[in-house]
Each structure stands twice: as C-alpha cells, then as structure tokens.
Amino acid sequence: MFLTLGFLVLSLVALPCTAFLRTAPNVSSSDYSFTQFGAVANVKNVVAYNGTGIKSYWWANFFQGTNGHSYCVVITSANSGPNDTVSSLSVTDLNTGYHFGTSVIEPGQLSTTKFEGKSSVLHVGSTAADEFSQTYAVSTLPEFKFDLQWVPKGPILYQGGSGFFEFGADLAYTFDVVEALPSGTLVVNGTNVTVVPENSTTWLDYQWGPGYAIGGWHDWVILLENGVRMQVTVTAPNAAYKQASFTTMVYPDGHQELWPVKNDTQPRNPWVSSLSNITYYSDYVIDIPLKNTILYSHLPVKGGETGPSNGSTTANTIADTFTWINGTFDGLPIKGYGIMELRENAGCTSFGAC
C-alpha cells in the first residue's frame, strides 16, 4: 500500500525562455585535484548508511528542451523515517508557468548495498562500476514520465568546507556534483521533450547522517554566471540546537570558500499553498557581509512543492522552487539561477517520521 501525493497548477504568468549557461570544464568530477587529494566523495558511505536523520539522493535539473522551453525538474529518492521511502518529483515549465509536484511514500528503504532507490513510480541508480561516474532516474508516474541520465562534470562542493556540518543537534554529511551533464527525455503536460545537454545542467546532492534540523530551514543551491556554485543553509532558530547560517562556495578550479550568512533572509511577498496551507514567499535576501556579497532571490512561479493532496502536513511537505538570482558578488554585479528549498518546522527526527 502506498500514498500518492500530488499538486498541479497552471500559472497565468508566462516566463522567458532561458538556456542554462554551463561554465564547468569538460572534466570528470573525479579528476579534480581537490577530489583526489582533499575531501573524499565516496558514494559507498552514503549507500551504507542505515541510521536516523537523512539519507537522500537529490537532483535539481535545469533543462532546455528541443521544443525551446526551459524546465526546472527536482527529483528526490530518500528514506522517510525508519520504515518507508519517499519519491518526490516536481516540474516547472519556465515559459508557461505550468508546474506539477507529487510524492509517493511506501514501505521500504534505500539500498544499503548499492546506489539504488526504487519505488512503484521511481527508480534511481547507477550503471557504473564506481556507482558515481554515471547515474540515472526513470519515472513511470502517468502525470510525469521521464528517463534521464547524468555524467558528473566540474568540481565537487563539500558542504561545510569538508563535507559535514552541524545540521540540528548532530552531524550531516553531504557533497554535491554542481554541474552534471544531463541527457534524456521527459513528458511535461502531455508534451514529449528531449533534453539539450549543452544548454542544460544538473546539481546532484548526496546527503546522509543523523543530523536533522527539526525546526526547518531555508536552503539554496545557486549557479552564478561567473562559474561560482553556492550552497546556502539557514536553519530556523530552535532551542534544541545551534542555528546554522553559512554558505559553501566552489569555484571552477575546484577551490572552496566558507562564509557566514546573515540569518535574516528577509522573506517578502507571501503566498499560501492551496495544497498544504503553508505560507511561502516569492522574494528573499542572502547577505554575506564579509564577502561583500548580497544576493536577491526571486521565485517567479508559485510551485516546487511536493506534499499530499489530502491531509498534507509539514511532516511530509517540502518545496524546492526555481529562483532567479541577482545582486553583487565581491562587490560586482552578478546574475544566476538555482533552487530555493523551504522546509517548515515539523518536529520530526527525520523526514516524514512524526
């Protein structure tokens, strides 16, 4: 028995077509010196984890299709509590404003022997011997089918500077392929779309460990036009643990920087989800004073949410929403794009485990 969670909206606001600029060299992520001699991006550590907190594989995709449309597609395969898995899928057409989001929660857990997550609607894994140099995801969900593949390119970002940080009352371990090369096909609102790899990119996040910020968080993954890739974490204040508010940046050559971020993200222009009754916002500010950097995050579509269509709660709802970025970086004008993730306070020790 499984629970299907869904959300479908057609926005009236048309948005411009965009080709997503790729800046990473055509070099495997494994071949960067920092990957070889610094922090270790070991998929086997994720696979073997069998504890509380978080274990997840997460793809944020920025696709240009052969039809000229641009799409934001977010795919999550994760454990949900000690007994279940969650498969979450969302898609936004940035030209029409169409968006759809759904999750399937059913018994089972991610594999602890190989890189694989499998549910009745989503199968993710790798055909490579190292379980890293090629990954795939196939959706059979009638509302949103796809068959996608990725090859890791560019540097790896190690959150917290070395791949772990305090996330709530314990440690979370995480590393990110910030500019994977995607390929494949998808069906969006009845339209068959083929991905144009050279005008598309994907951010792949591996996260595991007992750390879990039960009070919720604001997170961003950001791809700037100067080639810098940023992950921003701002956890909500909670009496049970120290608030985290920082950004990890990785440059095209693979070197990283870690900076504190002001913990007030200045949310503006609220809207309330008809699915979950959660209040979201269309605009935020990411202020990094020591870096002489201030970024304005604008979410053009009220979408990206995955949660139940009946009985939705903060325990099983999360939003990964496309965002445009503009502002200043090192004091100079900058633009970019990415994902803003909002998780509300659910009081759970792990996702969905309330």
From TrEMBL:
Record has Flavoprotein as a keyword: no
UniProt keyword list: Signal
Annotated signal sequence range: 1-19
Source taxon at top rank: Eukaryota
Keyword Signal: yes
Identification of the protein by name: AttH domain-containing protein
Organism field: Capronia epimyces CBS 606.96
